[in-house]
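Example S7 (structure tokens).
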């Protein structure tokens, strides 16, 4: 209850405060995510979606500059008020994903330990806003992260895949919710794609059809 009240309070305060840049706090016009200097550091991804044999990958930007700073603040400085402006950036992927006719939007989940420290789930907030953009239903409890894993930073793709084996599961007794559903997986940043792949496989084990991975930014491997 306290985390919910905190989230409501932070959004209420954010709505009353003067709009500020998501990266550096400089004043900006209403409905503007970044100030001019920060916006110039963004690298939009104008390339076509990457078509995989099993799904489509879409991303809004490259990871770096002001976007990296905003994501770090969002995830590690308990800035859940940044969910709305960052979700507006992710919405750039909306038309490409809508064309795939998804039913459900599922966030990559955090482990309960990390969730308790943050008091909110960054990917779940992004997924909820993105689902509204594409007219699908957000399912924040579709997956559980059932064990703590090593930090992925510094691991190559193969080591990341091994690190995540069995880490994500669909809650027991809920598989029928996803049978034949067309699902979009959402996360903030993709590096090697190992985390998204682990979640993808967990959903497919219960009969879901994962049609796309949508991320705010792609980081260099």
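Recovered sequence:
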């Amino acid at each position: 209850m306290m985390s919910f009240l905190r989230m409501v309070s932070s959004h209420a305060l954010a709505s009353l405060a003067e709009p500020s840049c998501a990266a550096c706090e400089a004043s900006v016009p209403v409905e503007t995510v970044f100030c001019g200097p920060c916006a110039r550091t963004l690298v939009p991804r104008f390339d076509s979606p990457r078509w995989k044999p099993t799904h489509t990958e879409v991303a809004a930007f490259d990871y770096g500059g002001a976007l990296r700073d905003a994501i770090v603040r969002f995830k590690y400085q308990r800035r859940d008020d940044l969910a709305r402006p960052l979700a507006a950036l992710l919405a750039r992927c909306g038309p490409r994903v809508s064309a795939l006719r998804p039913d459900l939007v599922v966030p990559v989940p955090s482990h309960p330990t990390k969730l308790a420290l943050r008091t909110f789930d960054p990917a779940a907030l992004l997924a909820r806003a993105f689902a509204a953009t594409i007219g699908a239903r957000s399912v924040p409890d579709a997956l559980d992260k059932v064990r703590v894993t090593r930090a992925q930073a510094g691991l190559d793709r193969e080591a990341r895949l091994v690190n995540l084996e069995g880490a994500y599961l669909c809650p027991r007794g809920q598989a029928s919710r996803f049978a034949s559903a067309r699902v979009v997986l959402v996360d903030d940043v993709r590096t090697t794609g190992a985390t998204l792949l682990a979640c993808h496989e967990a959903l497919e084990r219960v009969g879901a059809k994962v049609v796309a991975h949508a991320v705010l930014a792609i980081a260099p491997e």
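Notes on this example. The first helix runs from residue 2 to 16.
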